[in-house]
Amino acid sequence: MKTKTLQEWLRYIERQHPKSIALGLERVAEVYSRMQASIDCPVFTVGGTNGKGSTCAMLESILRSAGYRTGLYTSPHLLRYNERVRIAGVEASDEWLVESFAAVEAARGSVALTYFEYGTLAALWLFSKSKLEAAVLEVGLGGRLDADCAVLTSVGIDHVDYLGPTREDIGREKAGIFRAGRPAVVAEPDPPPAVLSSKAKLLLLGRDFGYSAQEGQWAYWGPGGRRGGLAYPALRGRMQLRNASAALCALDCLRSALPLAMQHVRQGLATVELPGRFQVLPGRPLVVLDVAHNAQAAKILAQNLADSGFARETIAVCGMRRDKDIGAVVRELAPRITRWHLASLSGPRGASAMDIKRHLDGDVHLFESAAEAFAAAKAAASEDDKIVAFGSFLTVAEVMAWLNNNKTSTR
Predict the structure, then answer these.
(1) Of 76, 123, 214, 242, most Cβ neighbours within 10 A?
(2) How far apart, in whole angstroms, are the C-alpha atoms of residue 128 and residue 33?
(3) DSSP string, 353-380
(4) 279/308 Cα distance (integer angstroms)
(5) Per-residue pLDDT tens over the stretch 22-65
(6) Where are the beta strands (DSSP E) in 200-270?
(7) Using CA atoms, how far apart are residues 290 and 301, in angstroms rounded to an integer?
């Protein structure tokens, strides 16, 4: 039988389950047990509506600064599937991923797996072969993988078709990553009762850990004590201190297994990278890339835009999925936007530019793709303007691809 390429595997696993998302642990647990894989190191799981990727990136960066061999699994990706799996800071190669998908396929038998479940099992299989000292897993919907420490970054309204329409429903599902008696770091400042009723060892923001911001520096306090005089994380945005404090609290919880020096914390926060999270590109006009795609994330993006200084005009490049609350997202951003470049996204879940326009008034322009919308925004903007691309990982990915193909980032 001819060996599949990575792209062939990805096309194959997309066809194996009727739903892109299916909650529940049973299928994954059954296949994982058949794979005879085990991760023999401390494991962090990170869930939440927003902030998961940033918190995972900080955990990985700090642990790597301390010399630990790490595994990181996140989703979705921007430009390459390989971005989802990193071992010792290096993206998994096509060959590694092909081997891991083949291992999942050999073990699953007749069990139907979603795209995400295939990817999660493949990452776990790779981690089990990689002699890791720490593993960080970003958990999406319905994730219930065992972990030594869990982190819940936030609880907002998103994925209501799967999780339910209220924060209580969503909080109950998100808290599924907690384990009785094990530490669970809750960075959501207003957790719903379903989260607070967990039998995990809860560490709550403001009660068990927290942070304070000063001019040019910040301080963290938590189970391991207080750490002051910290430089701001390399990831920009108002919410990153909250994410950073959650990461530091999680590391405090496992400090006996993964001891860290202060210099490792400082270096890790200073060097952390994560594309598409209030990513400000060099040059003029100022260009911001942000994967914000729900109301909570859009509100944070609006605050960050307000904090980023004056612009004569702010041009939005926006493309979204149809299953998102488009109206709520654009309402949060509308006070900060002077002109809208709306993009249609491809695929069955993609919203058309006209779908988004129905929620807007004012200066609105429609385009067939995010790349076309961004190119037009770039051509129209002056050096004193801002361009912000947001609404979906797909939107940011298209803009990033356009920028890679048009290397001149300044006028």
Answers:
(1) 123
(2) 13
(3) HHHHHTT--SSEEEESSHHHHHHHHHHH
(4) 12
(5) 445 677 888 988 998 889 999 999 999 899 999 999 999 999 99
(6) 201-204, 210-214, 217-222, 225-230
(7) 8
